[in-house]
Specification:
Blueprint (H helix, E strand, L loop, with lengths): L5 H6 L1 H9 L2 H21 L6 H15 L5 H17 L4 H8 L1 H8 L4 H24 L9 H27 L9 H22 L1 H6 L9 H20 L4 H23 L11 H16 L7
């Protein structure tokens, strides 16, 4: 399998479509960042492994991605991933991804120093969030402050919006967005990512509660309103990007997020996990096509 082709498609069909629409200059960097994050997420979610083991493997993966692991450390890590960690995965694609983690590391070395730094930075932050998630909920059943929620949503998703911006500017320069708007775009990208993670948290509240964990300690409606606000930020972010392909690839999650928020507002406690119907996804795609064709500028 090609790392950013067949294997990417196997581990995430929806994100594969987003990658497909990206300009070639940043497609591989975003794809590899996703693959590395998906590999660490698979380890973090390996319920058959003890929390201490998962945390230790994540730490080793972080060192390997950062280029700080010795050859002995890296080989030991690859054996663990290809062995017991891969065998514990129920998804064959995730099993293959862990077995090919060494290929992902070698692919990282093929990028420019600036792009490589972007990928390493976002993975460092994501792994920090995954480690916190593992260790914190061994002794707690809920976050105890809104700041913990904000920090966690930044670590596992907000940093991805930041990464998207930094990598885009590194790979495409002014063809990505106005360089003078860098700070504005970084902050909007962070909020966009945090909003998407808040939607995931709100959708999964019942499942997380059954697992003895809650990522919210205050009124859910407040967080739903914040997620909605952040999706508007996400649409504005996408409208400021230069180029139809960039805008379309970036905008679709925000529009799907808005639809999901509308369903969450109408949901009752006994309705189960909300999921937007396929026809609504097609409607979002059409709207994304229209908005992406209008050119860059702030959305109304």
């Amino acid at each position: 399998m090609d790392l950013t082709g067949e294997l990417l498609k196997a581990v995430s069909r929806s994100f594969y479509l987003t990658i497909y629409w990206l300009p070639a200059a940043m497609r591989s960097g975003v794809a590899l960042g996703y693959m590395l994050a998906r590999a660490t997420d698979s380890v973090a979610d390996t319920s058959t492994a003890a929390p201490e083991q998962r945390e230790a493997v994540l730490r080793a993966m972080g060192r390997a991605i950062a280029g700080e692991a010795s050859e002995v450390e890296q080989q030991a890590l690859l054996r663990t991933l290809a062995g017991e960690m891969a065998e514990a995965q129920s998804n064959p694609a995730e099993r293959t991804l862990l077995q090919r983690f060494g290929d992902c590391l070698r692919a990282l070395d093929t990028f420019s120093p600036e792009q490589c730094a972007c990928i390493r930075k976002v993975l460092h932050t994501i792994i920090e969030g995954q480690q916190w998630d593992i260790t914190y909920f061994q002794t707690h059943s809920s976050v105890t402050s809104d700041e913990q929620t904000k920090r966690y949503t930044y670590q596992v998703a907000g940093c991805v919006g930041e990464f998207w911006t930094e990598l885009g500017l590194a790979a495409m320069g002014a063809e990505f967005c106005d360089p003078e708007k860098r700070e504005l775009m970084l902050q909007a990208g962070i909020r966009y990512g945090q909003g998407l993670q808040l939607i995931n948290i709100l959708r999964d509240r019942s499942e997380d509660a059954a697992r003895g964990r809650s990522y919210l300690c205050s009124d859910a409606s407040k967080w739903l309103n914040r997620a909605d606000y952040y999706m508007n930020d996400g649409i504005d972010y996408c409208r400021r990007l230069r180029g139809f392909r960039l805008r379309f690839a970036s905008m679709l999650p925000a529009l799907i997020g808005k639809k999901t928020i509308a369903l969450l507002r109408r949901a009752t406690p006994d309705c189960g996990k909300v999921k937007i119907p396929r026809r609504a996804v097609y409607g979002c795609m059409l709207k994304a096509l229209v908005l992406s064709s209008l050119g860059s500028g702030r959305a109304s």
